[in-house]
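Hey, can you fold this one?
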Amino acid sequence: MRVLGIQRAQWRDLWAGTVAVSPLMPGAVVFGLAFGALIQVVGLPWWMAPYASSTVTAGASQIAIVEALRQNAPMAIAVITALVINARLALYSAAMAPIFAAFPRRWRFALAYLMTDQSAAVTSMEVDKWPDPVRRRWFVLGVSGPFVGIWILGTTAGVILGPVIPESWQIGFIVPLMFIAVLVPGLRTWPGVAAAGISIATVLLLKDLPYGLNVLTGALLGIALGSFVPDRSHPVDEEAVPPGAAPEAHDP
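Sure. Predicted structure:
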């Protein structure tokens, strides 16, 4: 039986993806509200919020760019900040390439367009449960599509509700939240934890820098100093090897 030309089994796979990402959706709503409110504060046209969210689909860099513009920062600083923040997408691309390899080209393009930090994290964790390429692509669509839809609706609501959202949500609170939302999905190694902590601390300590330079400085400093932290070659949530026990062998 088909509904809208889609088989019932595919609807189930799509719904499974939506359920898997649903715990992260409230964060998308809060993020969207803050971005829409920021658009309102800066005085940009209301339609810029849903347009940016549906074309850029990268909340952290969207907020960073608009905040830089709000502080009358040179365009070069706004662009460089966005590029540094979005550099992580290259890592997602490399991680998703084997997962998307068996998909038709139109599916690869569409799902790549919809990919966010959260959907990449959920896809990576759940992909082994979906070995069949057809079922997998519908699952990934369920993870990515509704999440982006919630983000776009949240930004639209933020424009409407902007005047009633406290200033601390729009400016002071959202920048640390941006870094937490971006970095938490990757906090599985000690260098990652160090980079996140350094970035967030730098953003907070340097919050009075002009042009939003605290965001750019936090990103660069976190990446630079985090790279010097030794990697213990296992995730931080993995149980430690008891004293005297031989470590497990790892494939080269």
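The longest helix spans residues 133-161. Let me know if you want another pass with a different chain boundary.
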